[in-house]
Protein: NAD(P)/FAD-dependent oxidoreductase
Amino acid sequence: MEQMKQYDVAIIGSGPAGISAALNLKIRNKSFVIFGQENLSNKLELAPKIDNYLGFPGISGKELTNNFKKHIDDIGIKITYEKVTNVYSMGSFFAVVCNDKSYKVDAVILATGVNYGKLLQGEEKLVGRGVSYCATCDGPLYKGKEVAVVGYNQASLEEVDYLKGVASKVYFVPMFKGQFSLGDNVEVIHSKIKSIEGENSFEKIIFEDKELTVSGLFILRDSVAPDVLMPGLKSADGHIEVNRNLETNIKGAFAAGDCIGKPYGYIKSAGEGQIASLNAVSYLYEKAISNKNK
Structure:
């Protein structure tokens, strides 16, 4: 893994909450990295018409996305197109892991939205115990062994291509429609998964019509639920628990946008991104004062 890059804040998500947080950190002259995607937010870009975004009546999601892009381009904010697989609280800092890279930051703002996908039965128990969300990170552990990949998007095909050069055989379970020609040592399974099982570590996948025993399982979604992404994070009903300052139960970790609960809304998310970033700035200041007085 490469040497850790260091920033004041990491923002995870590039929708209205994440972009707003980045804008305010930029104005406050804080160093930050914002992880997201080229179109910023699938949900926003595909919205046909938005009537409740103040100052932009009847604007389309595509138009609002382009406005966001122009704004961040004009002030020099760059999106980092990497998928965050884990965020670990290390006490005095956070380690943000993306495939073969890691970042060291003093604070984190989670702006991940709510499109995580339902966890497979048994998944939460076995993550880190033979179940992984990152083929590049954990693939070498299964050199010469058989593995399975549950893929929710086209990007998972790239991970399969990588794994077939490492593992002796790859079983690919697509959760989306398409034609798949993936190589001699890749077998595509079109069957519904009932559960994944194992006592102390992952052992097998239970399908509706059969069982599959392999050494490792990779589950590749667009995003990971925050409480799985960040161990120890408190959530309820699929949303991150925060206080009025948008602080989570983990010191230095903040959250904003749809991921903290209803009502969902683009302008609400943008406002929460601002609040989270300003409170993150206050946290950084208090932390610096505390370290200076030690």
